[in-house]
């Protein structure tokens, strides 16, 4: 079943009847993106939440010096959006790019609002997702301030185990806030200590 992964994701947090499942999937739009294709560019208004079926997205910003700051990755079974832009409908700060061919289901802001009216328990679902995201971002900020690069890399490995050997080292380094050279040394040291 095409919608099985997203329905399993939703049903971890809320229970849906069969008619509710049918109504929910009717609001979704499939999209396939090629590697390096953008779902959203910095400065655009985010109109969709994306649920990844296969592949991987990354969310990042570019500062005034041209440095990329990777905020998140979304492998299969993860959601991604520029939350500030999606909620406020103001120009966003994130670029959302496919790191490889990526299949996803898009839920537009308009359909998400309809979903809240039609099936109110989806407000609970998205509230829980937002709370989990807030907690993860707060913890990541605290980790960035208080942990070593090696410790942050270990946390990355726990959080994204399927991506460790899948992503370019440059992307992982940008996410954990170290140079690619530092990450290379840390990985070699971890391999030696095993």
TrEMBL record:
Residues 12-109 form the Cyclic nucleotide-binding domain. Coiled coil: none annotated. Signal peptide: none annotated. This is Crp/Fnr family transcriptional regulator. Transmembrane segments: none annotated. It holds the Pfam family cNMP_binding. It comes from the Bacteria.
């Amino acid at each position: 079943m095409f919608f099985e992964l997203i329905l399993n994701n939703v049903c971890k947090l809320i229970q849906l009847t069969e008619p509710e499942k049918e109504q929910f999937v009717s609001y979704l739009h499939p999209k396939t993106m090629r590697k390096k294709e953008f779902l959203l560019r910095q400065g655009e208004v985010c109109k969709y939440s994306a649920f990844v079926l296969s592949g991987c997205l990354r969310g990042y910003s570019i500062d005034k010096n041209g440095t990329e700051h990777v905020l998140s990755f979304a492998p299969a079974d993860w959601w991604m959006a520029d939350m500030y832009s999606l909620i406020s409908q103001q120009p966003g700060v994130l670029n959302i790019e496919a790191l490889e061919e990526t299949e996803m289901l898009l839920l537009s802001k308009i359909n998400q609002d309809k979903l809240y009216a039609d099936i109110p328990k989806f407000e609970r679902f998205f509230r829980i997702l937002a709370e989990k995201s807030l907690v993860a971002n707060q913890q990541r900020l605290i980790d960035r301030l208080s942990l070593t690069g090696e410790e942050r890399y270990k946390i990355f490995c726990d959080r994204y185990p399927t991506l460790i050997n899948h992503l370019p080292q440059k992307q992982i380094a940008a996410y954990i806030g170290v140079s690619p050279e530092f990450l290379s040394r840390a990985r070699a040291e971890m391999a030696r200590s095993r």
